[in-house]
Amino acid sequence: MFTEPLLSGITLGGIYALIAMGLTLQYGVARIMNLSYGESLVAASFAALWLFTAVSVNPLVGLLIIVPLAALINWLIYQVLLTPLVRRAANRDALEVDSILATFGLLFVAQGIMLAIFGGNYFSYDFLSIPVKIFGATVSASRLLALGFAVIIGLTLYLGLTRTRAGTAIRAVAVDPVSALLVAIDVRATAAFAYALGGALVAAGGVLVSMFLTFNASLGVVFTMKALIVVIMGGVGNLLGCLIAGMILGLTETFVATYIDPGLTLAATYIIFILVLLLRPQGLFGVKRS
Amino acid sequence: MSAPLLSISGLTRRFGGLVAVDGVALEVRPGEIVGLLGPNGSGKTTVLNLISGALKSDGGSIQLRGRALEKLPAYRIAREGVARTFQLVRVLGSMTCKENVIAGLAFGPKSRWGEEASLAAHQLLVRVGLASRANVMTSELTYIDQKRLELARALAMQPELLLLDEWLAGLNPTELRDGIELIRSLRAEGRTILMVEHVMDAIRSLCDRCYVMNAGRKIAEGTPKDVLADPEVIRAYLGDADA
Amino acid sequence: MSARNLVIVLALAGLVALLALVPSVANGYQLSLAINIMNYTVLATAWTLFSGPTRYVSLATVAFFGIGAYTVAVLGEVLAWPLVLLIAFVIGFMLSLLVGLSTLRLSGVYFVIFTFGLAELVRQLVTWYEVNVTRTLGRYVFVDITTEQIYWQLLALAVAVFISGWLIQRSKLGLALRVIGDDEAVARHVGINTTMAKVVLFAFSASFMTLAGAVMAPRWTYIDPAIAFNPVVSFQVLIMALLGGVHRLYGPVFGVIPLALLFEFLLAKFPNHFSIMVGIAFLLIVYAIPRGIVGLIEGAQLSLHRLKGAKA
Q1: Could you tell me the pTM of the whole model?
Q2: Is B78 in the C-facing interface, judged by CB distances under 8 Å?
Q3: Rounded to a whole number, what is the distance in Å from the CA of B202 to chain A's nearest CA?
Q4: Is residue A185 part of a domain?
Q5: Which domain CATH number covers A246?
Q6: ipTM of the complex in this document
Q7: Chain B residue with minimum CA distance to C184
Q8: Is A128 within 8 Å of chain C by CB?
Q9: Is residue A286 part of a domain?
Q10: Hey, is the C-beta of C128 within 8 angstroms of any chain A C-beta?
Q11: Residue A181 belongs to what domain range?
Q12: Domain limits at B204?
């Protein structure tokens, strides 16, 4: 009995970690606090749904189409909509407030478009929902597959950031944009790249989530919230922190849903958030900022 | 010898692996002007930040007239009677000079408000030589005037201990002379001052005693003349003679 | 009081008296429009009361508004009306203290994020309670309050918000908030308990929002969590305040009136694309007029002034 929620908690946690990694890139590197983040996820879910039901493209193949497309769209959003804000912002706080406002507007536009196309109904589709037995517990194959992909994508990202030149540039910008400029890193291009990469990650998350969760056009806000909580809990810019915090959130939600009440999962999410804010505002693995 | 106003012992603060302040001890007696010297990055400003509560210490004690400050938040320390200026001058940009000073009067240990505060603010502006600029927005002030204003705001709190963080830095020779005069006039009033400073002329002419820090530690203390002649201090500033 | 101030006070009193006469001349549609404008005036001004000086963006307006509405739905038939309003006020105050104390001592982003999800959390908790405890999702609001009375109560609330805002601006709290808005480190070092100042003001602002929700509740005969906690309300309040200008207490009014009319029009013409339209309007405001209409006017006045000065 116990292994079943544990397994589904781990799969959910893995997905949350993946989603939060994208946000930590957008916020930690590009300094954009993106409130329309969850809308990108839901849009990717809808794209996967459409590809699967209308043109019968397998969601895993769909990843190959949707992820690059999401990267491109997010890159364009950064160049067209966010660059003017970066230019006019006097300091980091001003950019944060401006980006919160702008992406809050984007949220309503994106949500409105999806509502206009798909309405407010919940959607899901049947892909690999074959029960699989592991350690005596049953999990659907699609969940396991999603977790597998989340691990591969997360690991690739981690290695990319720590082992490559471009990854080092991204980390440098995250730590100190001014000094990064001094060592000839094109900060704005790097920020745009990080923002696009974040968009690609969340789109991947959206496709994977669509394989086993029901979703609707107004679910984005909830995913944004969860991603933000994971990012803060793990410490902004900390990928490993994302993984652990994502797991904590996924497991808590699943256990609350299984043993207490499915209607209280969001409340549980919030309680975790409040506890983190009160006890360790710098994140579980963050270092106190001077 | 009178009891110390400020006494610090074992003060320590780490930033990650770096120990910015390492077991520092110092004392300031009432009415003294004490200098805190040392090369860049030696931890002087961090010490001021720890005293004023801008940063929390990792160990050691800070006492003002025997009252422990190290656990208090910055606003409580301010109300205990510690006022400061900042290394990079910080005036309140959306306000006039007078309002800046009233900000110092209204919330301090001897809070003043209304007509009384308005009068006191005027007197303080006269004191630092900004009387004619009372209703000017701070963003229109020159650098030296911003520094004067910051000092007026700190004095408005009637502090028992005034912390000056490189208040004289970046001034031209005329301004520097005026600045030194201004601080000297504070001594005449009986103010107690702990100042971080690089300007040697100012240190020689103003400070009763000095502490010198290097790499987070205290390396010398004494009169300005003695510490500036101390071989270890010279080494800290200039490196080894044969290097 | 100087003669100029006396004139201003008399003019404002006259304006309030005129506004109080609106129900006697307006038809049903006009009155409902007037109620809408008055409601958003209260909400946007209450929002500005806190967010203007502190520059913290609160996205939780509807959380408090909805709590007010629900208080009426639950207690409206049981208790006397003033008592219901008082309870709504107390609940809003307590909740905002809780939110403020857990988020306002940290950097602004935490506050934004927290308020961003707060309405959603409250909505889910209310839904959970209704489904599991009362076993019905919606409630009927049967309170003996006429449409005219709702309008007058909102007008009174608007006057109360403006007077409190004016008093706060003149108080030490008002100065403390301006110092915090300029430089929080300086604020702490001149002895301001910055967290307390922000929390108190946030609680004030949120209590007004809660009261507005309570007063508005009888407008609907039926409410459910999706109606009471509709996130579009928070969004509209934010955009109205920003359009008007948040650095003056009266700024939001300049955003409320045009946008309330625009939204009315959009809702009638494009009911299915409303959220897209509002989103685009919002983006236009953020990009084109970041300091709001009042900021634009003051900017124009200043450059005119400088022009004259240069000529003279």
Answers
A1: 0.85
A2: yes
A3: 30
A4: yes
A5: 1.10.3470
A6: 0.89
A7: B92
A8: no
A9: no
A10: yes
A11: 3-279
A12: 1-81+161-168+196-243
